[in-house]
Design brief:
single chain, Rossmann fold, binds (2R)-2,3-dihydroxypropanoic acid
Length: 322
């Protein structure tokens, strides 16, 4: 039996599957581990299941020691991993792709629609008891049907998101490093450069990985290039957007609105953001459905079980070590 550490409580079924084969210890607190706790708890483990809130760098890998064969992230994004440091030490890193594509794409639509039709703002107004009855000029929002949808990132989640635009008869434009023939075939999306994406999108949704090259993909200059009627949606990673620049742009009506699931310095919000009426903010819940979180757990556990049985994991992010 190997010894596996899990940095936060996960759905029961994958943990039971893990416990049937190995000794398992779990962070008992309902919060992320502190850095000190993480460094202490990984020591001497054969495998560790981590969260996007755990920074796994050379120091943590060294603290885990030479027995540790895998760090399995309970997330598709793995910007919390120092991939080079793990690869240099021969440690396998895995993530949980595919199983959360639909939940995340649907959540991006929920944010888009909520921002366009001012759902949280109007709900707050109604609950506050201020509503004095229907009015022709009250809380007018943005039409979604027949508008232009911009998609930054043509990977699995971006493609699922784009496919749902057919329900609203939208024109879909997208930008990525390379065109996606699949996306063009399935939803008639048109490949454009970044300047065109910014200029023509009525709604712009970010589905890029966080890399040095995509950090602040949207900053003050990009916001200024967007339509004043545009809505920005981010379910990718917070640092894709310069959040200070976004707060200023929303305050000064440079763009019309935003829907954010992720934030630049989670869990902290940039001062001023939470006070704005034209932004919908939710606490990084795009994958938070029962079925999706269970499937993410099963993927992470399957990866650990495979590696501990001497087999390659299904979703390795540093295959050079295999
Ligand atoms: C991920 O998986 O990367 C999401 O941000 C959380 O599910």
């Amino acid at each position: 039996m190997a010894n596996v550490y899990v940095t936060r409580m996960l759905p029961q079924e994958p943990l039971d599957a893990l416990r049937r084969c190995h000794d398992v210890d779990i962070n008992p607190h309902d919060r992320p581990l502190t850095r000190e706790e993480l460094l202490r708890e990984v020591r001497g483990r054969d495998a560790v299941i981590t969260l996007l809130t755990d920074t796994i760098d050379g120091e943590v890998l060294d603290a885990a020691g030479p027995r540790c064969r895998i760090f399995a992230n309970y997330a598709v994004g793995y910007n919390n991993f120092d991939v080079d440091a793990a690869t240099a030490r021969g440690v396998i890193l895995t993530n949980t792709p595919k199983v959360l594509d639909e939940a995340t794409a649907t959540h991006a639509w929920a944010l888009l629609l909520a921002a366009a039709r001012r759902i949280p703002e109007t709900e707050r107004f109604l609950r506050s008891g201020q509503w004095a009855g229907w009015g022709p000029l009250q809380f007018l929002g943005r039409d979604v049907d027949h508008m232009t949808l911009g998609v930054a990132g043509a990977g699995r989640i971006g493609s699922k998101f784009a496919a749902k635009a057919a329900a609203f008869d939208m024109r879909v434009i997208y930008h990525d490093l390379q065109p996606s023939p699949e996306l063009e075939r399935t939803c008639g999306a048109i490949f454009v450069d970044k300047a065109t994406l910014l200029r023509e999108s009525d709604f712009l949704s970010l589905h890029l990985p966080l890399l040095p090259a995509t950090r602040h993909f949207i900053g003050a200059a990009e916001l200024a290039a967007m339509k004043p009627t545009a809505v920005l949606v981010n379910t990718g990673r917070g640092p894709l957007v310069d959040e200070e620049a976004l707060v200023a742009a929303l305050r000064d009506k440079v763009i019309w609105g935003a829907g954010l699931d992720v934030f630049e310095n989670e869990p902290r919000l940039t001062p001023g953001l939470a006070g704005l009426e034209n932004v919908v903010i939710v606490p990084h819940t795009a994958s938070a459905t029962f079925r999706t979180r269970l499937a993410m757990g099963m993927t992470a556990v399957d990866n650990v079980l495979s590696v501990l049985a001497g087999k390659p994991p299904q979703t390795c992010v540093n295959p050079a070590v295999l």
